[in-house]
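Supplementary Text 2. Reproducibility record for the structural model of the 293-residue chain.

All settings were left at their defaults, and a single model was retained for analysis rather than an ensemble. We include the record here because the model underlies the residue-level annotations in Supplementary Table 4.
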Amino acid sequence: MKRVTIRVPATTANLGPGFDSFGLALNLYNTVTLEEQDSGLDITGCHPDYTNRNNLVYVAYKAAMAAMNLPVRGLKIHIDANIPISRGLGSSAALLIAGAMGANALHDFPLTLKQILEITTPLEGHPDNLAPGIFGGLTASMTHEDKPLSVVFPLHPDWKFLALVPDFPLSTAAARAVLPQHLTRADAVHNIGRGALVLKALELGDDELLSAAMADKVHQPYRKALIEDYEPIEQLVKSNGAAFCLSGAGPTLLCITRNPDLQDILESQLRTLTKATWKVLPLKAEHRGAQVL
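Retained model, structure tokens:
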């Protein structure tokens, strides 16, 4: 039976004011192997709670098979997951991408990457994590007439990304529950302008512009209350000239900087400032997106 292995990068979404729109692929990966068999479903490499037909890899595999008008028979799935779960680094998106791309690779690639995005977006709910995971790099995405559209933007090569990953999870559902149902016009205008400037600052490598443009009024003011250490970490990061935001819905916090010393500063001071345990992950942008190995 044919077997394929898919490697999908982690992603960080929102990037401050780019709520449900901006995303960036990072060099931390989930690797998933799919092998067809005559019957049954065998899943290894993950918690027993996920070794069933609700597994996201299998859900996306079935969706891609339906898009190709092919029958679903037996399947073996092995997951080697390095992206932390429920931490705001796109773990669910990575599994969905792996399932859809795995089905496509097993059947000689009839689907385009754009179609992979179209298949997985209804499963994820929105394309902000999926687009960078599929295409790589820095993306902005939207849904138009029920179909996702995504564009890749240029990114200055000098940026360093530090993901501050805590020892506690935060579900996307909980993070969504605290958001307001309506925004004021002033808050909407605030985010529109800053969103445009974030993309330009990331292109130019402009530290000062990026730090200013990261200010958000749509989601971070409400979600930060769910993360006890948010404000002292924010003050520490900003005092060292770096841009700061939630990674996705959190609880991971993202620092964007060109300062090579920031990692050492954070690792030496976080222990005394915070109540939770925070791991500092130095990451780079991943420009290739998901790959068939």
